[in-house]
Specification:
Elements lengths: L1 H11 L4 H23 L11 H45 L7 H29 L3 H12 L11
Helix pairs in contact: 1-3, 2-3, 3-5
Length: about 160
């Protein structure tokens, strides 16, 4: 339980210097863009960029991508840990003669899983491109979130 708490806490709080500034800029863009949308402030000149809308979408895209990236990293870490633990348990129980596992069918299951992941990757790509505004900032946020490394060492100095 402490592992999961540390993973969640440091996934969102212990950020590097560039990630802190990217998140601050995204929040400022979200707030500034939202304020201009609510107040109807900055209008785009003819043929120009609607800065309020651009700022709002870019900030929301980065924040959404970052949150999805951190959650994806946490999900894969916990899933890998549980999968390895279950595989070790199955192997140990088979070595003790308690259960007989059909190792041949595990290959079929893993190939079916790989096919399912390949099918759903397109859906995930469609989700990212349609629901995360400003695709470039969303991709940047997703990359920042996935590369966010949790800190497990206790610094009690």
């Amino acid at each position: 339980m402490k592992f999961a708490q540390t993973l969640l806490k440091t996934g969102f709080t212990d950020l590097s210097f560039p990630k802190k500034w990217m998140l601050r800029l995204a929040i400022a863009g979200l707030i500034g863009g939202g304020a201009t949308q609510i107040l109807g402030g900055i209008e785009a000149t003819e043929g120009g960029i609607p800065w309020g809308d651009f700022s709002l979408r870019s900030g929301a895209g980065f924040l959404g991508g970052f949150v999805i990236g951190v959650i994806t990293r946490i999900f894969f870490k916990i899933t890998a840990l549980i999968g390895l633990a279950l595989a070790a348990l199955g192997w140990g129980l088979q070595k003790m003669g308690v259960v007989e596992l059909p190792w041949d069918s595990f290959g079929e299951i893993s190939s079916a899983f790989a096919n399912a992941v390949a099918d759903n990757t397109d859906r995930f790509k469609d989700f990212l491109s349609s629901y995360l505004p400003a695709g470039l900032t969303g991709a940047l946020g997703l990359g920042s979130g996935v590369t966010q490394k949790p800190q497990f060492d206790e610094d009690d100095e």
